Predict the 3D structure of the following.
Amino acid sequence: MKLPPRDATAYFKKPDPNKTGLLIYGSDAMRVALKRQEFLKALLGANAEEEMRLTRIQAADLRRDPPMLLDALKAVGFFPGPRAAFVEDANDNIAKILIDALADWQPGDAQIVVTAGDLKKTSKVLKAFEAHKTAFATPIYDNPPDRAEIERILSEAKLSPEPDAMGSLSELARVLDPGDFRQMVEKITLYKIGDHGPLTAEDVGNCAPTSTEAEVDDILHVVAEARAGDIGPVMAKLQAQGVNAVTLIIMATRHFRTLYRIASNPGGQIWGVRDRDRAMRQAKSWGAAKLETALTVLTDTDLTLRSAGQHAPTMALVERAFIRLAMLGAQR
């Protein structure tokens, strides 16, 4: 059966131990792996490997020794509880083995959990799971975690975020790889040991990776300080380093939101920036009214970049927006 992504989130939290199995597939191996870990933990509990209730099988090994999957399904261990046979990196080379295993599966057998890359609609493996009455197939897309997913991750880590912290985390989730985002949450968890207060945006800023921000700091300051003539060379350098257009817009939006917050509340607490004095000078130079206009420009550019009908070079669109902002900032 097909398991749409909107239903997969709930099913991964509470799997049915009586189902035959699950196929998780997608082009981003890290996202697929994280979802597989989440599912197996919910299905088997935290000690499945120690209790030998989880059998791991590489697709290449299974191709050389087809009976090993059926043996894993039927084997009865010493420890009570649900069992699973996990087949990693599946493809159509082992399709017949998986199809036979699905056909031979009986209640009480271990569940068949399979991960794969970006399968085509014609894939025999995909068709087998989609056609099966008690097995599921679900795709994992390259979309960043949504608010519900972030809240679930924080809940597992026993972190209670303030609204501003959720905003910071949502922005970071859009620019970090899933594995990097998880590592950041683990770092935040360690950072908050002994601190029973809510998670603040300052906490997030103190634990956020600095590499991505450091690469774009130069262009953010160039734009915020109205140095339009320096934008072209810095943009060329960033493009050569592999920084993409969406990342630049996201980071610029975060920077200008910080400036707007400072300009709107000059005596308030400043967080989320490494050079507070420089940020204060920039905010004072712009003023709240012009910063509102700047955020509108950035939002419009972000929407244009994500538009399905957009075919212009993305870095050129961002550079044009930055020049427009620098000229706006130079106005007195």
About this structure: Residues 276-305 form the longest helix (30 residues). The longest strand covers residues 84-90. The CA atoms of residues 47 and 53 lie 9 Å apart.
